[in-house]
């Protein structure tokens, strides 16, 4: 197994701590000032991660390892945005079963490989139907990802919708076959699988 040196791409604990500091510096983590700080931090994290992935590629010449490093960078950023939105922006605690949400990587991203500039295919997986909290978190995350320059393909579906649609649409079926858990409720992901 190749040593991917993922710790050189992004420090997940530092990113979480930096986001926590932003939340603490602002009375409202949903404010425009907090959002500007979050965007600046994430843009810098993304830029530094891509630069480090490129340096490692020049050192070891391993394209697949580079694609895995970029995928890892994206995992950390997406997970961090999700936790920041849930805990600091919307201050959601003690979620009901209907409010649970899972983020799932699909396509090449689901396989854990991303080329620089690739689309990020995400599934916002719900247990039943959309809830106000789920819609708010999804919208917040997508806007942040777009604002830091990411191209995001996305769908928001329940487990039942995924199964029903995959029976009639081979693209959806194939994307679910390549699905990979990112963050959120693991049991919900297991139900889909």
Task: Please explain how this structure is put together.
This protein is of the alpha+beta class and 193 residues long. It is 59% helix and 12% strand. α5 (132-147) links the parallel β2 and β3.
* Strand-pairing-aware structural class: alpha+beta
What's the total number of strands?
Answer: 4
Helix content: 55-70%
Beta content: 5-15%
Spatial shape: flat
**What is the CA–CA distance across the termini?**
26 Å
| N-to-C order of helices and strands | HHHEHEHEHHEH
Major β-sheet profile = 4 strands, mixed
Mean of pLDDT: 94
Radius of gyration, Cα only, in angstroms?
A: 17 Å
Spatial strand sequence of the major β-sheet: 3-2-1-4
Count the DSSP helices. 8
Keywords:
single chain; alpha+beta; 4 strands
Please provide a brief summary of the model:
The chain is α+β, with helices and mostly antiparallel strands and 193 residues long.
Write the layout of secondary structure elements.
Blueprint: H1 12-25, H2 32-60, H3 63-89, E1 102-106, H4 107-110, E2 120-126, H5 132-147, E3 152-158, H6 159-166, H7 170-177, E4 180-184, H8 186-192
Parallel strand pairs: 2-3
Antiparallel strand pairs: 1-2, 1-4
Helix pairs in contact: 1-2, 1-3, 2-3, 3-5, 6-7, 6-8
């Amino acid at each position: 197994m190749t040593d991917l040196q993922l710790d050189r791409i992004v420090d997940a604990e530092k990113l979480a701590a930096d986001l926590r500091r932003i939340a603490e510096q602002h009375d409202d983590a949903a404010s425009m000032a907090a959002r500007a700080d979050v965007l600046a931090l994430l843009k810098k994290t993304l830029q530094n991660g891509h630069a480090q992935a490129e340096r490692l590629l020049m050192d070891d010449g391993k394209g697949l390892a580079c694609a895995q490093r970029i995928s890892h960078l994206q995992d950390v950023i997406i997970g961090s945005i999700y936790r920041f939105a849930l805990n600091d922006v919307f201050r959601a605690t003690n979620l009901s079963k209907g409010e649970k949400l899972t983020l799932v990587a699909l396509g090449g991203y689901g396989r854990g490989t991303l080329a620089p500039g690739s689309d990020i295919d995400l599934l916002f997986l719900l247990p039943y139907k959309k809830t106000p909290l789920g819609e708010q978190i999804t919208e917040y995350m997508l806007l942040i990802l777009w604002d830091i320059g990411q191209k995001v393909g996305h769908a928001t579906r329940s487990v039942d919708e995924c199964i029903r649609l995959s029976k009639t649409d081979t693209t959806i079926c194939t994307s679910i076959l390549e699905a990979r858990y990112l963050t959120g409720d693991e049991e919900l992901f297991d139900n889909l699988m």
